[in-house]
Amino acid sequence: MKKATQYIHAGAHPDPSTGAIMTPIYQTSTYVQEAPGVNKGFEYARSQNPTRQALEEALAVIEEGKFGLAFGSGVAATDAVMKLLKPGDEVIAASDMYGGTYRLFSKIYSKFGIVFHYVDMGAVDNIETKINANTKLIWAETPTNPLMNIADIRGIAAVAQQHKVLLCVDNTFASPALQNPLSLGADIVMHSATKYLGGHSDVIQGCLVMNDEALRDQLYFIQKSTGAVPGPQDCFLVLRGIKTLHVRMQRHCENGEQVAAYLRQHPKVEKVYWCGFTDHHNHDIAKKQMRGFGGMMSFVLKDDSVAAATKVLSSTKIFSLAESLGGVESLINHPASMTHASIPREQRIANGLADGLIRLSVGIEDAEDIIADLAQAIG
Ligand SMILES: Cc1ncc(COP(=O)(O)O)c(C=O)c1O
Q1: Which of 201, 199, 150 has the alpha carbon at shortest distance from 171?
Q2: How many whole angstroms from 296 Cα to the centroid of ligand 1?
Q3: pLDDT in tens, 20-43
């Protein structure tokens, strides 16, 4: 099946009892058994739920993997991967990834004796030099949030395989519609399904997709043992979101391209971060591993003061000032004080995340309206 067909039909089976075309929301905590151990494959809803099962099947299909696992949030999905590790294990992670991932690693897992090395993943060599006998995991995010840096998934996967280290890729920004890390050699794909997969800013959810059955079993064991599972209604919403992912993503890409081009020529804009520009430092890699460049971008004004950025952030009418991204509506965000506030300022600045940086999640409204809104806000 071609992608567009897969997105509509993945995980969808008419309900056996009624024929309902949409997967029912199985709002139940438990399942009646005929005799101890004699059941229909469902025992307790932390371990199994039919709505979640349909979603997990769909997630595997759209990420070109064999197994999907859904979690109560993106961070919970990341947390499950970290629970594969033990004290003394080392992780190589991107220096400019999502602030919440950095917070989980540096504030929670480092307390348990996991050692983190944060590197610029724009060059594969930066990763290889940090690998030692204790390295168990490479955590990549590409494009990165919010600077749109690109990591070469195929190149990193080759290094990971050579050193028998797991590679997990946070694919939230690209979504499976634009990039499939498993097919490029990654072991695990992680998503904040809150974003493009859900697509309508109405659900918090995360997921992992993988090919290796033993790895799936380990992660399933962690999922049911630690319990960060999503509710069935949330699974239904993400299943529904997936059906239109490819169409939404197409429009995000078209609008993103127009907005990036507009901002770039604006006399008050100093720099636009968007991986679709041919002079983006890793554009060639982005072009090879992505099917489009999406609607996420960041920019800084020539007046790089926080006051100037705040004026723009407070003046938009179509863009709502809010955390999150990937919904149908356009959002504007100030990473330094919002999504990335948990990263110490010196580290943020060293990684290139300026105090005045503004991040956009370009929605699927009319591109002319979106651009007119930015024009009046920037002035
Ligand atoms: C790239 C990325 N990864 C992970 C997360 C965490 O996901 P969640 O907010 O669903 O826990 C986010 C949230 O913004 C994100 O942007």
Answers
A1: 150
A2: 14
A3: 999 999 999 999 999 999 999 999
Kindly list the protein residues whose Cβ atom lies closer than 6 A to any atom of ligand 1: 73-75, 98, 100-101, 141, 145, 170, 172-173, 192, 194, 204, 206
Residue found under tokens 């995340």: 353
Q: Which residues of 124-141 are buried (b: 16+ CB within 10 A; e: fewer)?
A: eebbbebbeeebbbbbbb
pTM above 0.70, yes or no: yes
Output the CA 218–ligand 1 centroid distance in Å: 23
Q: Sheet harboring 115-119: ordered strands across?
A: 67-71, 206-210, 188-192, 166-170, 135-141, 90-94, 115-119
Active site residue 317: no
For residue range 126-177, list pLDDT tens digits in order: 999 999 999 999 999 999 999 999 999 999 999 999 999 999 999 999 999 9
Contact present, 72 and 228 (Cβ < 8 Å): yes
Is 269 strand, coil or helix? strand
Q: What distance in Å separates the CA atoms of residue 342 and residue 101, rounded to the nearest whole number?
A: 10
Sheet containing strand 296-301, edge to edge, reads 269-273, 296-301, 358-361, 331-333, 320-321
| DSSP class of 111 | G
Q: How, if at all, do strands 331-333 and 269-273 pair? A: unpaired
Q: How far apart are CA 347 and CA 302, in angstroms?
A: 22
